[in-house]
């Protein structure tokens, strides 16, 4: 047997009410009622709809038969009426009081337009208004009603509620009858706004009649300007309507104020509250002002939020010509608001204040003001509009959805972000509309999680149904949380975008320059070739592509950011090169636009360094790391080395293997250079990272070469690569070669000759592969520190090294071996080599006086012969006074003399050696600190010069932008004279040189 529960009816009285309607019989649904009951079951609340029908039947009496017949025949009527009855108790009450009004829901007519709304409401208050064939109604301030007082309010209220019923019925109907046309959010919000405008015009007509009397002319021109959601044509079902009043002449402001007050009273009693609190000085200010009065206030006293509110200003009633003049006059002030000091911070602070005023227990349910709510979307859109709309008129829309779409088209917001934010905004507005319709109350509160009945009703009113896995309530809750979280994420991404503050800091006039003015501004910013800079700008943002639009938004900021760097011209050229190289990289410009830290850091790097842009065009992925300090500066060098070796091991072709190694090295070099220049990585971290990645490249190249030379057979020898020089000390700079020794040992079953031939082939292939021409910084493998130098064999066996060092080693070779450490190949063989050379580099009994004199003699000859002609010995970082060579030779002399007695001195690192020497008492701690300071200063300066010039250079620049760039790279502030750095360098290295002369030369 059928039960009403089959149709979603749970009220015990349902069967009795269905029988009263004639839809139910003893055997179940009455003949022909199946379609009606099916429609009833799709209503948001079938029980509520059924009760409404029974009330309407009782109110109609004998007229029920006509409605009952129409419901069976008219799909539109059935969908509209059952949807309204199941959604809104307030509109049900309206129909019960005026039961004949059901007829307005019949038929296939679409929603009335704005002019029909106006004509209907003006007619309700008896206004003398002509309506032309197209339905246009008069709207001037001369229109006045024939009725006034309570009668006018009554008639206006009834007519307004009827039109509101029309809108709601058309909006809700597809929920019950899916074949009916679906109204989009934009259409519904626009209709509600048009209806509100019609109500304002009608209320004004009543007010004019009350103040001026019948037949008397109104001695004042009065314009009503809509603000807020009504101004933007995005009104809710239940909302205050924000307005301001403008009047002329000034002498009749009293009359205008009485008319405005009367209009607000009539509209408030009949339709909705009219709020004029957005006027100057709020509720404490004059209700009506002249246009000059408004302008005087806005120019002198207005706060940031007032310009934000004026975004949506739109004349809607009264003297429209005066209203248009008001909007035209304030519009330039609105689009100059972002020039105000602290503008962005003010808007952000206002949003935080609004959010903080939401009670904590309601914050997660507040659709409008809470986190992830409608205000998050609106504030973000308005802030972007006010900042970027200064120059782009496409953004100057009063409607949130339209403005958001324009921001997406213009490239100010990612297309996906704009689409997602628009979708979520529409969804939240739909829920807001449904919640307000229920009782026609102004509410924005989403049902509590445990309010299953409320969630189910809202889900069904929003058109959601069970999906097989979840109930309608569960589906609604999941969708609400998804949209809520997405809105908050995108709000924080856009609203707190650091780039916004940077854009806002650029004056409006600088965003709209003629070519002549642009050249003047570029020159004032510090560009030495404004014409060249202008050509770069034109090349970057010419055309109508999205890429050009985003560049147009970015360039004003980047020009200012680059102007703060040592070389703005070079930085802009580098930016153009990088942009052109990455033109087809979809995320490049999006990253700069959305991540302000990336844009700011990139400008710093490009305006300081030639080394970085050369790598960046070939390793653009590193750009993503500029916004993540932890990744940029905190990556473990060993992890990077492991990734490099793992990736290279997948290649069988040695050339391809080395190409892969180069690629990964390129990324690591760029990462380290960026972190170094930005002051995020200290010198020990720089040296460790550069040395580790070089060692990893050697390991990868050695493995690939061994596989190639072996050609699938067992290797004929075990090979180890010993790092020497700065590689051995873990102190590589950006331009350092890799000093190495190759040592081998025959594999089981191989003789020494075969092993040497195999190992030599491998070593030569490694050197050839790594030294192949490339756009990357060079990979030079230098084996000149081997026994007999360039004339000796490239590879020796362990026994050969042992024999040579025992019989032929000179003191400089023992000195070179102080840096020897295993870096690649067979680790056990490398360890045995290191143990083999320990007695050579740490001689028992120390260094005798003759050999110490020999080292001093060699050092003096190196100083005299290798310092380039014309070089300044005071500022040459490697061979200059107190430079790298001075400090390193001093440490090495101490090691040769004392390491046999002090094991802590047996280190390959310079700074560690100095610390150990001080701890052992063989060097005064103050002298150790002076030497360490000199070494750090020279190493950092040498690295900085390489980064600035893009190639290894040991001499500090004498002056000019390169010197300024080196100083900036070393952390000196932009305002500092580069000469301060030179003075610091000279002072530090002079102190180190004094120690060298005493300790090394014995003077």
Automatic annotation (TrEMBL):
Family: Belongs to the GlnE family.
Cofactors demanded by this protein: Mg(2+)
Species annotation: Streptoalloteichus hindustanus
Domain PII-uridylyltransferase/Glutamine-synthetase adenylyltransferase, residue spans: 350-495, 874-999
One function term, GO molecular function aspect: magnesium ion binding
Catalytic activity line of the entry: [glutamine synthetase]-O(4)-(5'-adenylyl)-L-tyrosine + phosphate = [glutamine synthetase]-L-tyrosine + ADP; [glutamine synthetase]-L-tyrosine + ATP = [glutamine synthetase]-O(4)-(5'-adenylyl)-L-tyrosine + diphosphate
Underlying gene: glnE
EC number: 2.7.7.89, 2.7.7.42
InterPro entries recorded: GlnE, GlnE_rpt_dom, NT_sf, PII_UdlTrfase/GS_AdlTrfase
Pfam families named in the record: GlnD_UR_UTase (PF08335), GlnE (PF03710)
CDD domains according to UniProt: NT_GlnE_GlnD_like (cd05401)
Entry keyword annotation includes Acetylation: no
Cited NCBIfam families: PRK14109.1
Protein name: Bifunctional glutamine synthetase adenylyltransferase/adenylyl-removing enzyme
Domain of life: Bacteria
GO cellular component: cytosol
């Amino acid at each position: 047997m059928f039960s009403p529960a089959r149709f979603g009816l749970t009220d015990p009285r349902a069967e009795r009410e269905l029988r009263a309607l004639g839809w139910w019989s003893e055997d179940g649904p009455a003949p022909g009622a199946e379609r009606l009951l099916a429609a009833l079951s799709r209503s948001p609340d079938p029980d509520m709809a059924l009760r409404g029908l029974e009330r309407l039947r009782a109110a109609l009496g004998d007229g029920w038969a006509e409605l009952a017949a129409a419901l069976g025949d008219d799909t539109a009527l059935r969908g509209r009426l059952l949807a309204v009855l199941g959604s809104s108790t307030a509109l049900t009450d309206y129909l019960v009081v005026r039961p004949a009004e059901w007829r307005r829901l019949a038929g296939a007519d679409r929603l009335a337009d704005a002019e029909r709304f106006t004509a209907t409401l003006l007619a309700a208050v008896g206004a003398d208004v002509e309506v032309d064939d197209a339905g246009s109604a008069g709207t001037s301030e001369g229109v006045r009603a024939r009725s006034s007082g309570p009668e006018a309010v009554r008639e206006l209220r009834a007519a307004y509620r009827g039109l509101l019923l029309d809108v709601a019925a058309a909006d809700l109907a597809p929920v019950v009858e899916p074949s009916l046309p679906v109204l989009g959010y934009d259409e519904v919000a626009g209709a509600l706004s048009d209806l509100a405008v019609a109500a304002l015009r009608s209320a004004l007509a009543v007010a004019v009649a009350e103040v001026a009397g019948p037949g008397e002319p109104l001695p004042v021109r009065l314009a009503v300007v809509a603000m807020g959601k009504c101004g933007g044509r995005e009104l809710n079902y239940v909302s205050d309507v924000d307005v301001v009043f403008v009047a002329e002449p000034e002498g009749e402001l009293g009359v205008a104020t009485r008319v405005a007050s009367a209009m607000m009273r009539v509209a408030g009693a009949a339709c909705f509250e009219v709020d004029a609190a957005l006027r100057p000085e709020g509720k404490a200010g004059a209700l009506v002002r002249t246009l000059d009065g408004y302008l005087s206030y806005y120019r002198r006293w207005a706060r940031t939020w007032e310009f934000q509110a004026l975004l949506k200003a739109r004349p809607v009633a009264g003297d429209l010509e005066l209203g248009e003049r008001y909007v035209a006059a304030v519009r330039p002030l609105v689009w100059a608001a972002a020039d105000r000091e602290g503008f962005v911070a003010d808007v952000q602070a206002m949003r935080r204040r609004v959010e903080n005023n939401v009670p904590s227990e309601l914050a997660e349910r507040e659709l409008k003001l809470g986190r992830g709510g409608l205000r998050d979307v609106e504030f973000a859109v308005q802030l972007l509009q006010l900042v970027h709309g200064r120059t782009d008129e496409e953004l100057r829309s009063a409607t949130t959805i339209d403005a958001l779409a324009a921001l997406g088209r213009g490239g100010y917001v990612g297309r996906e972000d704009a689409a997602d934010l628009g979708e979520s905004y529409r969804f939240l507005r739909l829920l807001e509309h449904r919640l307000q319709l229920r009782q026609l109350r102004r509410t924005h509160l989403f049902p509590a999680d445990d309010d299953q009945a409320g969630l189910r009703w809202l889900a069904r009113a929003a058109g959601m149904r069970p999906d097989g896995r979840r109930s309608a309530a569960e589906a609604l809750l999941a969708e609400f949380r998804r949209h809520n979280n997405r809105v908050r994420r995108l709000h924080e991404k856009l609203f707190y975008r650091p780039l916004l503050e940077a854009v806002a800091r650029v004056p409006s006039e600088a965003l709209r320059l003629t070519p002549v003015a642009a050249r003047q501004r570029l020159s004032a910013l510090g560009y030495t070739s404004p014409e060249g800079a202008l050509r770069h700008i034109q090349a970057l943002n010419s055309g109508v592509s999205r890429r050009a639009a985003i560049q147009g938004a970015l360039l004003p900021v980047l020009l200012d950011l680059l102007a703060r760097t040592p070389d703005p011209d070079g930085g802009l050229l580098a930016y153009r090169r990088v942009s052109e190289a990455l033109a087809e990289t979809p995320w490049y410009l999006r990253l700069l636009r959305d991540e302000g830290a990336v844009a700011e850091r990139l400008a710093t790097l490009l305006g300081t360094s030639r080394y970085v842009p050369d790598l960046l065009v070939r390793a653009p992925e590193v750009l993503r790391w500029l916004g993540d300090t932890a990744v940029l500066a905190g990556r473990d060098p060993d992890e990077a080395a492991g990734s490099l070796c793992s990736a290279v091991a997948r290649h069988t072709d040695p050339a391809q293997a080395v190409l892969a190694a180069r690629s990964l090295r390129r990324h690591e070099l760029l990462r380290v250079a960026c972190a170094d220049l930005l002051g995020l990585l200290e010198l020990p971290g720089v040296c460790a990272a550069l040395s580790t990645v070089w060692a990893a490249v050697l390991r990868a190249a050695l493995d690939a070469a061994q596989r190639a030379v072996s050609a699938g057979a067992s290797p004929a020898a075990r090979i180890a690569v010993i790092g020497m020089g700065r590689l051995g000390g873990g102190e590589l700079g950006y331009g350092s070669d890799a000093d190495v020794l190759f040592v081998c040992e025959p594999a089981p079953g191989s003789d020494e000759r075969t092993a040497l031939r195999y190992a030599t082939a491998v070593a030569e292939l490694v050197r050839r592969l790594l030294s192949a021409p490339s756009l990357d910084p060079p990979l030079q493998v230098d084996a000149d520190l081997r026994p007999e130098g360039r004339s000796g064999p490239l590879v020796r066996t362990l026994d050969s090294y042992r024999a040579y060092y025992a019989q032929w080693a000179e003191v400089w070779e023992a000195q070179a071996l102080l840096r020897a450490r295993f870096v690649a190949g067979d680790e056990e063989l490398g360890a045995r080599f290191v143990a083999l050379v320990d007695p050579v580099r740490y001689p028992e009994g120390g260094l005798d006086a003759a050999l110490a004199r020999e080292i001093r003699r060699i050092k003096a000859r190196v100083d005299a012969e290798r310092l380039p002609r014309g070089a300044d010995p005071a500022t040459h970082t490697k061979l200059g006074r107190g430079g790298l060579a001075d400090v390193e030779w001093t440490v090495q002399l101490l090691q040769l003399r004392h390491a046999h007695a002090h094991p802590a001195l047996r280190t390959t690192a310079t700074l560690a050696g100095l610390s150990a020497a001080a701890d052992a008492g063989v060097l005064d701690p103050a002298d150790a600190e002076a030497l360490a300071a000199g070494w750090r200063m020279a190493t950092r300066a040498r690295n900085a010069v390489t980064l600035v010039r893009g190639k290894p250079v040991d001499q500090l620049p004498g002056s000019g932008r390169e010197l300024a760039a080196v100083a900036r790279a070393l952390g000196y502030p932009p305002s500092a004279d580069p000469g301060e750095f030179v003075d610091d360098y000279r002072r530090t290295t002079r102190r180190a040189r004094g120690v060298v002369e005493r300790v090394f030369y014995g003077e």
